[in-house]
Amino acid sequence: MNSLSGVDLNLLVVLEALLAERHVSRAAIRLNKSQPAISHALARLRHLLDDPLLVRRQGGLEPTARAMEITPALTEALDRMRHLLAPAGFDPATERRTFRLAMSDYGAAVILPALLPVMRAQAPQVDLVVSQASREVMVSQVVDGEIDLAFGVFPGLDRSVRSHRLFDERFACLADAASLGGRKTMDLATYLERPHALVDLRPERQSEVDKALAELGHNRRLSLIVPHWGVAPRLIAGTDLVLTVASRILPIQDDRLCVFAPPFEIPAFQFTQIWHRRRDGDPAHQWLRSRLQHLLDG
């Protein structure tokens, strides 16, 4: 249909809720409407777009290929309309807002302790919902409008995704202090002889540490692979394991452990925040990005 004449644009809000909830009853609750009203709207949408849009599967509704195709454009269009109709500016002291953030537990350990005191003091009515996913999933969530900001290392982003560097991160090593025999460092030969711990959600890929070793013609034995940054440092004391991770996760108070520089060069990496360009003009979004930039830029 080339004309909007006669089209109830509220149907698009219903479609957004249905695609998010994939369930008529939950969409009705979300929009504070009756279930028959949502069912009727879905029927009108199917006629309007000449597609079933959602088909019944076990446990709920599944979007068709056409529905998945239009979801990013629908999200962007509704976000732009909400921004157009929203009051000008953003007063963090009084306005209510929920931000959806995605980050690893490393990101949570670095970001949230700095951010939360600012949020509670300056924006007490603003809520945060934090989730964790792989790098690829976080990017797709940003593109699809499921989250507002994602944090991490994101090479090769689509042009629709904006990014801002928050800080440069380097690597450091952690080992049991007693196992170092009074030394505060480790040479490369000893490093390669030791078993190692790795933090990675996808252990099948080559880590930055192993890439750096491979360029020198070396490899290491990985004796422990865990998906969580937060628990890894606590597993090293009393063992012969070496943990090589982003340095900001390692300032821990434990006399049994020793932090030292890697005995070979590992390139630093940029830790960034990313968002979709549709959020560029959102005053609340701008405010949050600027707070994060101020707190973490360095």
Key features?
five-stranded mixed sheet, 3 domains, alpha/beta, D-Maltodextrin-Binding Protein, domain 2, 12 strands, 9 helices, 38% helix, single chain, 298 residues
Concise synopsis of the structure shown:
The protein has 298 residues and is α/β, with parallel strands linked by helices.
Report on this model:
By secondary structure, the protein is of the alpha/beta class. It folds into three domains: 10-85, Arc Repressor Mutant, subunit A (Orthogonal Bundle), CATH 1.10.10; 97-168 and 270-296, D-Maltodextrin-Binding Protein, domain 2; 171-267, 3-Layer(aba) Sandwich (D-Maltodextrin-Binding Protein, domain 2), CATH 3.40.190.10. The protein is built from nine helices and twelve strands. The protein has helices at 10-21, 24-31, 35-49, 65-85, 105-122, 135-144, 188-193, 208-215, 283-296, and strands at residues 54-57, 60-63, 97-102, 126-131, 149-152, 161-169, 171-176, 195-199, 221-226, 242-246, 257-260, 269-276. The strands form three sheets. It has a five-stranded mixed β-sheet, sandwiched between helices. Strands 9-8-10-7-11 form a five-stranded mixed β-sheet. β3, α5 (105-122) and β4 (126-131) form a beta-alpha-beta unit. The chain is elongated. The termini are far apart. The model has no long low-confidence stretch (mean pLDDT 88).
Category from helices, strands and their pairing: alpha/beta
Tell me the distance between the termini: 51 Å
Helix fraction by DSSP (H/I, runs of at least 4): 25-40%
Number of structural units classed as domains: 3
Unreliable stretches = none
Share in β-strands: 15-25%
* Shape category: elongated
The mean pLDDT is 88
Name of the CATH first level of the largest domain: Alpha Beta
Number of strands: 12
Which fold name fills CATH's third level, the topology of the largest domain?
D-Maltodextrin-Binding Protein, domain 2
Major sheet strand order: 4-3-5-12-6
Largest sheet: 5 strands, mixed
Q: Counting H and I runs of at least 4 residues, what is the number of helices? A: 9
Looking at CATH, the homologous superfamily of the largest domain is Periplasmic binding protein-like II
Radius of gyration: 24 Å
CATH architecture type of the largest domain: 3-Layer(aba) Sandwich
